[in-house]
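Recall that a protein's primary structure is simply its ordered list of amino acids. Everything else, from secondary elements to tertiary packing, is in principle encoded there. The following example makes that idea concrete.
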Amino acid sequence: MEIVSNTYNLDTVLTSGVYNLQLVMTSPLMDSSSVFQFEIIDETPLSPQNVILESTPDNHVLRWDAVTLSVSNTPVTVSNYKIYASEEPYEPIPSM
């Protein structure tokens, strides 16, 4: 008996939310189906809050509260931050 695994990437067609997925299986002997409920959670971190720029004669220090939640209010761990600086305010941010 050969076991076949099939995958389908739903990221391109679904956004955050709760969905019911019906999986229909067919074979020469019988057909069956199952319904699964699943949730897609947007894990995009929230923006940093309480951002402060401290200036000293020798240095500039940028501080902010750690980001611990996503836009879906689920816990996230941010391992690093990218900081961009420009002499032109509101210059477009480089694409990531």
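The beta strands are 17-26, 31-40, 52-55, 60-63. The CA atoms of residues 19 and 38 lie 6 Å apart.
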